[in-house]
Amino acid sequence: xxxxxxxxxxxxxxxxxxxxxxxxxxxxxxxxxxxxxxxxxxxxxxxxxxxxxxxxxxxxxxxxxxxxxxxxxxxxxxxxxxxxxxxxxxxxxxxxxxxxxxxxxxxxxxxxxxxxxxxxxxxxxxxxxxxxxxxxxxxxxxxxxxxxxxxxxxxxxxxxxxxxxxxxxxxxxxxxxxxxxxxxxxxx
Length: 188
Description:
This protein has 3 domains: 2-62, SH3 type barrels (Roll), CATH 2.30.30; 65-125, CATH 2.40.50.140; 129-186, CATH 2.40.50.140. Strand 15 and strand 16 (181-186) form a beta hairpin. The protein is an all-beta fold and 188 residues long. Helices cover 0% and strands 54% of the residues.
């Protein structure tokens, strides 16, 4: 058993007969009244995100997890297939277990959280950023650079990201996976 002081991003807990991963939290100490922890929880079975508030000192049931490196192989529409980089075993996961499946290209190495009780994969953690090639974007309009002007661009995985006007088709860009935002252009 853990308490609210143990809450951190990525912690898996058992709550309301389901397993949730904490994706955001904030300790709040109001001037009047008891302290509490405001959290955003993502169900590892359905992918649904809920907001919840725990009072300070509340006991929570944490789920012991192991992390393993897996390589993304392919997706067949419903399932995403991964291979363990150590023993080459393969697993398949539903799209709901993935944080940003639209930013994952074949061969990408990700971290999979596995429940130690039943060896079931819980969720997939992407690297902090990924490098993808721009496959389609409109040319930037000259003189349209008032302040931080952006345009939509489609990358090789099919995801759409807003990029600065100087980005062209064929450029490789670094994308922050947590927010799905453009970070920088990669020079080759």
